[in-house]
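Hey Z.,

So I finally got round to the NAP thing we talked about over coffee. Here's the setup:
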Amino acid sequence: MRIVTQSRYGGPDVLEIRDVPRPVPKENEILVRVEAFSVTLADCAFRKADPFITRFFNGLLRPKNLVLGDDIGGVVEAVGSAVTRFAVGDAIFGSVGSSLGGAADYVCLAEDAAVVRRPDGLDAGQGAGLSYGYLTAMPFMRDEGQVKPGDHVLINGAAGSVGAVALQLARHFGAEVTAVCSARHADLMRALGADHVIDRNEADFTTARDAYDVIFDAVGKSSFGRCRAALKPGGIYLTTVPSLAIIWHMLTKRAPGRRGRLATTGLRPVSAKRADLAVLAELVEAGAVRAVTDRRFPLTEVVEAHRYVETERKAGDVVVEMAW
Ligand SMILES: NC(=O)c1ccc[n+]([C@@H]2O[C@H](COP(=O)([O-])OP(=O)(O)OC[C@H]3O[C@@H](n4cnc5c(N)ncnc54)[C@H](OP(=O)(O)O)[C@@H]3O)[C@@H](O)[C@H]2O)c1
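And the result:
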């Protein structure tokens, strides 16, 4: 079977497509025929080991995972003798987890991995893209931001994979939502439910005063210091990207009344991710969350897919499809 691999850290050109034997599921595993996997800024960060901290998960000197790829959509091809949750032919989507392995024709997963059945109408590529954006956005909106009806939520980077789902979840939780993006994505933001759109090239959202209950920087381009005054007293600033300032703030709990938080959503327990994906399937079926797929690349263009993601200009998700 074909896999995407890398033997050293670096730019998109370090990616290689290789052939390896197809894995065989153990008694408590399922064998998934991967139809699509997502390519995200997180994948790029791990590929180039930037930030350095990724090396603590993926190998200090060189990448330790043979096969790349976290979020996937596919079909169960075979099941181990003790498997009860899935049957051959089930369409699934979800996250392979930190050991990776989704960028391949097949991957073996424990039956209690963070994958669930795919709802009707969600294709494999959409599932792979949504899995990443949602598993990041949901903990921020529900657990960290505790978004509730009547809250005013601002999302910076609202057109990205994480932001587009965060926007829809904030609306689902009953909030008034302001999306920050460039003008070319304004219509998409309104279509996803944004009440207000700020063109980031025309206006600086941080000049607002006492305006937002939650500011979620989905792309980590702002700072708590710059956003603090735009929060209402008691408001919270959330970011996906670690900085020394936010970590220092969280450790020292400065600035009572307005808080800043970073969350590491990728490190949540598999059981929590699986439960949340089951909720996502319901939200998709109910029409509360939909996938936004920017581009689909064939496997042979996986390098181009990484290059495109690194432009940081995509709207929603980029996926690689195995059959083209
Ligand atoms: N904390 C965690 O556990 C965790 C987990 C997963 C991912 N992450 C991180 O979370 C981030 C998620 O990003 P993503 O995947 O959603 O990104 P993405 O999809 O690549 O974001 C692309 C979008 O960013 C917008 N953008 C580009 N530059 C911007 C700027 N200077 N200010 C505001 N918006 C800008 C662009 O829209 P416009 O041009 O329209 O603005 C574009 O649509 C990544 O950095 C990833 O590493 C963290």
